[in-house]
Amino acid sequence: MADKRRVAKTSGRLIAGIVGVGIAGASVFAVGTFELPRVTAAVPSAVVTPTAADQARVCAGPLVQLAGDGSSNASSFGAAELTVGSESEPTQTPLVAPNNLAGDAFGSPIVVSEPSATDATTAPLLAAAQSQSAALGDLSGFAASACAEPSAESWLVGGSTDVGRTSVLALTNPTRSDAIVDIAIFGEGGAVDAPGSQGIIVKAGEQKLLSLAAFAPNLITPVVHVTSRGGQVAAVIQHSVVRGLTPHGVEYVAPTAPAANEQFLSGIVIAPNAPVVSDEDYDDNNPALRMIAPGTEPADVTVSFTSEQGGESPQPLEFALEAGIATEISLRDLPVGSYTVEVSSTQPVVAGARTSVAVGESSDLAWFQASTALPEAVMVAVPAGETPVLHLANPERRALTVELEPSAGETITAKIPAGTSVALPVAGGASYQISGAEGAIAQLSVQSATGISAFAVQPANPSATPVTVYPR
């Protein structure tokens, strides 16, 4: 009986298995023959657009004289003239400069701020710029600068601490938090060991003035990298030159575009009244392009030129840059005119350019910075000066039609074909709301009876972009 039961159970399992296989086969047949209904469910989500950030621009304040090359104290001696452009009425708040021995007798650093409208998704357009002439026994010339957004990182390509050259680094903290600032300095010999250049405290709402020579004396071609933690700072170098007993210019060195494989510097002016350049090994009256590849790899660089006057442009130049070495390339052979300079490199580089003009028996200098592409709309403040020019380069593959709507006067319209550059005369002491400029590169140059100055039109720091949120 036991054997029969075992056989019966086994037979039952076999039958059940056969039936199961049959059912499965039928199921497969059914699935292959008939389309089953599909059940889908959309994942819930929401797009959140952040409100626009308030805008702030930091103006460095008046020109200063150092008490000595290694001194941390300086004195202002005259007032800078300020130009502001905005869509409403921005606030101007003076800041404190504790080591300016003149205090606020001639003005002070200023933060120009404009809050965003409630629930606005685009930031207000805001710009400010300052200019000042100097005519002292050891400091003369004309200097202008855009008021800059504070940042956690800046590259300053310019200045010198060689004999007769003075570079004052101004660090301005407009935020509510103290900033801890680190300064890295590079020169013609590479990175500089600069004791005291790390962990510099710039208190909230204050400006700190520092002599670059106190960290790195006798540098011909310095490049300065400023980084900050905590509060953000606006960094700028005041560079002045004395040859013998005669002052030969003063200029601001503003932040240039971040390190990249491609850099554009528009509006580099080779003036008809450029000073005579000597045949010495190094003459900083010589127009030059200063560059550095800040990484660990050498860079092969091609420098191309586009003339704003049209016609045939100068031939490109090719150079090899050693990693970490600040290098100058002479632009002495450029004909009189203004140019857009394009730097193409196999490694990221930062760049700036210097030119000079004769002023009587003396001279003055200008520093030009690389800049990044403009957005569709931007505000530009033009500092007071006799012959300001807005230089616009179009590296895009399409033509641009740019409109400049002034704070007073008639709108200026300019068509810029792809791959060309233009120079547009503008009014000193005015502001312009620019539209149609997306992708363009811009620089302002200003000449006056006391010299020349220039600064790049840098786009505002990018705002927060819309974010898609998936609730749980």
In short:
The protein has 472 residues and is mainly beta. It has helices at residues 2-33, 212-215, and strands at residues 46-48, 55-59, 64-66, 74-76, 81-86, 91-94, 110-114, 126-135, 140-146, 153-157, 165-173, 179-187, 190-191, 200-202, 206-211, 223-230, 234-243, 246-253, 260-270, 288-292, 299-307, 317-321, 327-330, 337-359, 362-369, 377-381, 389-393, 400-406, 412-416, 421-425, 431-435, 441-448, 451-456, 467-469.
What's the SSE blueprint?
Elements: H1 2-33, E1 46-48, E2 55-59, E3 64-66, E4 74-76, E5 81-86, E6 91-94, E7 110-114, E8 126-135, E9 140-146, E10 153-157, E11 165-173, E12 179-187, E13 190-191, E14 200-202, E15 206-211, H2 212-215, E16 223-230, E17 234-243, E18 246-253, E19 260-270, E20 288-292, E21 299-307, E22 317-321, E23 327-330, E24 337-359, E25 362-369, E26 377-381, E27 389-393, E28 400-406, E29 412-416, E30 421-425, E31 431-435, E32 441-448, E33 451-456, E34 467-469
Antiparallel strand pairs: 1-34, 2-7, 3-4, 5-8, 6-7, 8-9, 10-16, 11-15, 11-17, 12-13, 12-14, 12-16, 17-18, 19-24, 20-23, 20-24, 21-22, 21-24, 24-25, 26-31, 27-30, 27-32, 28-29, 28-31, 32-33
Q: How many strands?
A: 34
* Average pLDDT level: 89
Number of domains: 1
Number of helices: 2
Low-confidence stretches: 1-34
| Assembly annotation | single chain
Strand content: over 45%
Structural class, please?
A: mainly beta
Pfam families: DUF5719
Region (Disordered): 80-99
Organism: Mycetocola zhadangensis
InterPro entries: DUF5719
